[in-house]
Amino acid sequence: SEAAGRYPSNYNAWSHRIWVLQHLGKLTVKVLLDELSSTKYWVSMHVSDHSGFHYRQFLLKSLIGRTVTDNNVLVQNQIINEQNPSLQKEEESAGAEAACAEEQSMDLPCHLQEELELCTELIDSYPGHETLWCHSGDETLNNSHYSRATRPMAQAMDVDGLNESSSKQGYTQETKRLKRAPMQDCLGPEMEYRFIDKVLSTCRDADQA
Question: Which SUPFAM superfamilies does the annotation name (predicted)?
Fold first, then answer.
């Protein structure tokens, strides 16, 4: 952190931090979320330094990959347990893991939404910084997993419409709460067009516009 703050665009420092996370932190979900939280202030104070935002892109991509991998493992475990009813302890363990992974999967769109909101706030506060636009337009924030999670929100939260295999797992109180919650605006080109129009109309510098 000190090296990144002392020398602008210090990709070497961030790359070493990534190495530490991979080999010592094992890229666990908790570590990734803690890093997202702890580097939020740093990037807010260095809005022209893409290296910090590049590090956050690594965190988000790792979080997406870890969540998808955990879900795939849980599905495989469920199939094995259904084929071996005698493995009661493993089934109970898989159920606990399923609840944990379900919570993590549910949080993923929220963290990506928060990242876009951070970019929006910084663009409003510090207009004309290309780094902020590049970060918000990165494929991390527009990946297929996120699109599927946010676009058909009514379908995703309609518990009554789940298929038979999914309904066996039941659903948590959090899912019930989300089902009752009002529909959120879908992230799409229309919202981006409105945001860009607002930025351009209030921009005082022609070069920045």
Answer: Protein prenylyltransferase (SSF48439)
Q: Which residues contact 156 (CB under 8 A, 6 or more apart)?
A: 149
* Contacts (Cβ under 8 Å, ≥6 apart) of 19: none
Give the CA angle between residues 82, 84, 87 to the nearest 5°.
Answer: 105
Is pTM beyond 0.70 here?
no
Q: Is 31 helix (H, G, I), strand (E, B) or coil?
A: helix
Q: What letter represents residue 77's amino acid? A: N
Amino acid (one-letter) located at 92 = E
CA–CA gap between residue 142 and residue 133 (Å, rounded)? 13
The answer to whether the CB of 117 falls within 8 A of the CB of 191 is no
